[in-house]
User: Fold this.
Amino acid sequence: QVQLVESGGGLVQAGASLRLSCAASGRTFSGYTMAWLRQAPGKEREIVAVIGSFGATYSADSVKGRFTISRDNAKNTLYLQMNSLKPEDTAVYFCAARSGWTTSAKANFNSWGQGTQVTVSS
Assistant:
């Protein structure tokens, strides 16, 4: 398993940008499918974006065109570039690792980060 630590969250105004990072420990980071998920108060956890071990990506419709997921396997780091943020993007954002591809928030993930809060004010 990998250990995951997120960073980069914060309080921003609508329209601003943030970049989340997820640092992974362990030698097998490159072999994992990595995902960003988020959970807002009173709502179910949802997939935001996914990147496979070979670089294939998926983005939820709600963030398509605004958020970009990427990974740097040399640095064992996952990123989420978030542009044109909206108040409805307010949530705790988690990174997670899985051995196989998924776009489902209900899938079993091997490892989870502790989460980082993103708050977007109107």
